[in-house]
Design brief:
Structural class of chain B: mainly alpha
Structural class of chain A: alpha/beta
Oligomer: heterodimer
CATH architecture of chain B: Orthogonal Bundle
CATH class of one domain in chain A: Alpha Beta
Largest sheet of chain A: 6 strands, mixed
Helix content of chain A: 25-40%
Number of strands of chain B: 0
CATH topology of chain B: ABC transporter involved in vitamin B12 uptake, BtuC
CATH superfamily of one domain in chain A: P-loop containing nucleotide triphosphate hydrolases
Helix content of chain B: over 70%
CATH class of chain B: Mainly Alpha
């Protein structure tokens, strides 16, 4: 076999990281980690948030320097001072957030930052020819002359992969690449990744989704608390086993749901039209009904109007037309405080931006909505004794891990901040709950806990609108599933019978076939 | 090595906490360079400065007299900052407060002292609140940048004062004598704040200011309105999410900030000059911002900060008399203090962020 890749670059036969230690103040992010990947292999790196996956690959990409340990490429020790060094050695990385310039074309983005073969004069035509060749070789469907802003998220990701290949990546790191994709786009991505492996690239695939890891990788390494729990060949590994390795204890993958007791309609959205940040309509006539005791899941690829819907329901974004009826009250143009008083709780998508004040203590964050009501205050003066009492109780009850209730929230982990918000919102005994991405960036343990709580709330009769881009989460919890695409509801299906394929098609905007 | 990381973290924290305090010595050091360039011995100049400010009873009481308006303005600035808005209008609010206090007490001079004095100060605060409220309402309703509008309100207040002191409010005695000095008639004695020490200018306003600092502390940290102001200042998005009307509390912060600066103006006429004079504010509206920043935007921290800066202002005058170093130098030093305090905060925040991501 040739030691050259189709791109003309040298293969990385083997990359080995030995005894990697990386410390952050108070945290041992990587504790003597050994990890390796070979040419032609897809090696999955599995672990919860904060397990040290990103820290490990960032050292490989030259973003961090290891405190201890060595990195070898093809048996030779390498030291990367910056991504420039690692790119020169053939390492590429696809970040979760794309680094593309929206107003430039694909060709221009790929050429950006590279020297031109013709000195000061651009050689975009030559770049285009190479891009077309790469697209052919790796089964990537991209129009080289499209502007980035015209492309879907999946296509943008392909451009990122193109960029890395163009720069000669023999080893490609993909950090949670599927988080932003529809199921069909995931399939396309996997075809490309397999092709790359066949051509002799080495791939590191980071994920916390077990079924994807099982589907794509040859080997899987599980990290927990900065340490390697184990490396297994994927063939023969099971979901249950991997989940247990990740969390360190048995994990529930299928929730026991009590039978559905659907009551009155508590939240009714009629023909809602809402403007997005760019001034165009982000919601184009959305209608939904959520009943007491039901979880309605809203599935969809990121950026199809979910955020605008959540904000309109919370009263944070003006409604252009249509109506919102909350518990029988028309709240279409009501302020957030009216909605809160009418019995709506909201778990916002961006918990640090909207849901919490990072410089406030845990206790101060608990009273964000109800500080002007007893028992927290006599309207004028805050009652610190009862604030402390309630805070202590909620921290216990919702298992929020914090040194004290006076600790500023910014010192807590994402999962614990989310549990704090959940505690605050659920302790208000809401009639209607809008939960937007409730477990994004939260570890499995906390996710599981949050899911259980949402199900308890369902049993207590709350009408829940669960907005999530995580299809597994939607499917595990929802009684009915609505799919949103470009600001419109494509269809609403039964949660028990919906298939991933059916939902995936709907998420891509293909309407539900009329039942024969 | 947990011990070591714990130790370095503690060290880092300490450095960050002490850094703003270094702003004063570093600013003085640069000032020393300037004094040296003027051909004066910096030790001698600073010697007279500190001797003049804190070295004897008359100097020290004078420092406290200057500290009083600084503290009141600083409290207003603190409230505004805590509410996430920046009030640069202390100067104008102070002038308007002083004008209103003067006009009111002269107009109602037959009222008994127990009513007239509190009402005079209240009127001063209210008119300052109106002056701060205009930018507040403009911001809440139309999103007008409060930094610009408060500065513009300063110019309006100054011209208003110039007009009133040369026209409607001028001391009749000045017209009779034909000297035409732009100052008002004397306030009725019933509207004077009591002097606390014989043969000094120290007056009851100093005590009032300290009481106000404690009240502002209680207001910001113990009441629901204070909680909302702080929530709005730290994260307006989250405050809005929680049903707090953000614009209202931003406007309220500016109104309250104006009230304290207006009160400072009332205290100045009623406690020190006993009449409205031109140049009454003497830059307190700006120096008060420095005092608030140096007090780490904490009402109680503003107390020592105001005393220090009041002392610098007094000492600067003595220094000028003794060594011919212009007292304006102290304005430069105050400016440098602001620069260093603000940049040290930014620096500390960057360090903290870098530690979080990189270690």
């Amino acid at each position: 076999m040739s030691d050259l890749l189709p791109t003309g670059h040298k293969k990385i036969e083997e990359m080995r990281m030995e005894g990697i230690v990386k410390r952050f103040p108070g945290v041992l992010a990587n504790d003597h980690v050994n990890f390796d990947v070979k040419a032609g292999e897809i090696h999955a790196l599995l672990g919860e948030n904060g397990a040290g996956k990103s820290t490990l690959v960032r050292q490989l990409y030259g973003l961090y320097r290891p405190d201890e340990g060595k990195i070898f490429i093809n048996g030779e020790e390498v030291v990367f001072h910056s991504p420039k060094d690692s790119i020169a050695a053939g390492v590429g990385m696809i970040h979760q957030h794309f680094m593309l310039v929206p107003d430039l074309t694909v060709v221009e983005n790929v050429a950006l930052g590279l020297p031109s073969s013709r000195g000061v004069i651009l050689d975009l035509d030559r770049v285009r020819k190479r891009i077309e060749l790469l697209c052919q070789q790796y089964n990537l469907k991209v129009d080289p002359y499209a502007y980035i802003w015209q492309l879907s998220v999946g296509e943008q990701q392909r451009v990122e992969i193109l960029k890395a290949l163009y720069r000669g990546a023999a080893l490609l790191v993909l950090d949670e690449p599927t988080a932003v994709l529809t199921p069909q786009e995931v399939d396309d991505l996997f075809i490309t990744l397999r092709r790359m492996a066949d051509e002799g690239h080495a791939l590191i695939f980071i994920s916390h989704k077990l079924h994807e890891v099982l589907a794509i990788s040859q080997r899987v390494t599980v990290l927990r608390d900065g340490r390697v729990v184990g490396t297994r060949p994927t063939a023969g590994a099971t979901k249950t086993e991997l989940a247990q390795m990740m969390v360190g204890r048995p994990v529930i993958l299928q929730y026991e749901k009590s039978p559905l007791k659907m009551g009155d309609i508590l939240l009714k959205v009629e023909n809602l039209v809402v403007r997005g940040d760019r001034g165009t309509d982000a919601l184009k006539g959305v209608s939904l009904e959520v009943h007491s005791g039901e979880i309605l899941g809203l599935a969809g690829v990121s950026g199809n109007g979910q955020r605008e819907l959540a904000e309109a329901l919370a009263g944070l974004r003006p409604v252009k037309s249509g109506r919102i009826i909350l518990n029988g009250v028309d709240v279409t143009h009501a302020s957030p405080s009216v909605r809160i008083a009418t019995g709506q709780s909201y778990i916002p998508e961006e918990r640090m931006k909207d849901g919490a004040i990072k410089d406030f203590s845990v206790a101060d964050n608990f009273i964000l909505e109800d500080h002007a009501k007893p028992p927290f205050s006599s309207r004028t003066f805050l009652n610190f004794r009862s604030i402390r009492q309630v805070s202590e109780r909620l921290v216990q009850e919702f298992n929020v891990k914090t040194p004290t209730i006076d600790t500023p929230i910014k010192n807590l982990s994402g999962g614990n901040i989310q549990k704090m918000i959940l505690a605050r919102e659920l302790s208000r005994k809401p009639k209607v709950l809008i939960a937007s991405q409730p477990t994004r960036g939260v570890d499995i343990g906390a996710s599981e806990y949050i899911h259980q709580r949402l199900l308890e709330q369902r049993q207590a009769g709350t009408a829940t609108l669960l907005i999530s881009e995580d299809l597994d989460e939607i499917r595990a919890l929802s009684d009915r599933i609505a799919v949103i695409y470009e600001g419109e509801i494509v269809g609403i299906v039964d949660g028990k019978t919906a298939t991933t394929e059916e939902l995936g098609l709907m998420m891509a905007g293909i309407r539900e076939k009329p039942k024969a | 090595m947990p011990a070591k990381t714990e130790y370095t973290r503690l060290l880092n924290r300490t450095i960050e906490a002490l850094l703003p305090l270094l702003a004063v010595p570093v600013a003085l050091l640069i000032g020393a360079g300037m004094i040296y360039a003027l051909g004066v011995n910096p030790f001698q100049a600073y010697g007279t400065l500190f001797q003049g400010a804190f070295g004897n009873v008359s100097g020290f009481t004078q420092s406290l007299v200057k500290a009083t308006p600084l503290l009141l303005v600083g409290l207003g600035v603190t409230i505004a900052f805590r509410g996430g808005v920046i009030n640069i209008g202390g100067e104008g609010q102070l002038i308007v407060g002083a004008l209103a206090a003067t006009a009111f007490s002269i107009g109602f001079s037959d009222l008994p002292r127990i009513i007239l004095l509190p009402l005079t100060l209240l009127i001063a605060a209210l008119s300052g609140a109106v002056w701060g409220g205009v930018p507040g309402v403009l911001k809440a309703r139309l999103g007008v940048n409060e930094i610009l509008s408060t500065v513009m309100m300063n110019a309006i207040a100054l011209q208003l004062s110039n007009y009133l002191l040369r026209g409607p409010m001028i001391d009749p005695a000045e017209i009779e004598r034909g000297t035409q000095i732009a100052q008002s008639d004397l306030l009725p004695q019933a509207a004077w704040l009591s002097r606390l020490m014989p043969r000094t200018l120290l007056h009851g306003g100093a005590i009032l200011a300290v009481i106000m600092a404690v009240l502002v502390y209680i207001f910001l940290w113990r009441t629901t309105i204070g909680y909302r102001i702080r929530a709005v200042g730290l994260n307006p998005d989250a405050a809005r999410y929680a049903g707090i009307p953000v614009q209202f509390y931003q406007a309220l912060s500016l109104i309250l900030g104006g009230a304290f600066a207006g009160l400072a103006g009332g205290v100045e006429v009623s406690g020190v000059h006993h009449r409205m004079i031109e140049g009454l504010s003497g830059g307190y509206g700006f120096s008060g911002i420095v005092a608030a920043l140096f007090g780490k935007l904490h009402p109680l921290g503003a107390i020592p900060a105001s005393v220090l800066f009041g002392g610098l202002l007094v000492g600067a005058d003595r220094m000028q008399r003794a060594t011919q170093v212009p007292s304006a130098l102290i304005t430069v030093i105050l400016g440098l203090v602001v620069l260093f305090v603000v940049s040290s905060e930014i620096w500390a925040r960057r360090r903290a962020r870098r530690r979080e991501t990189r270690g």
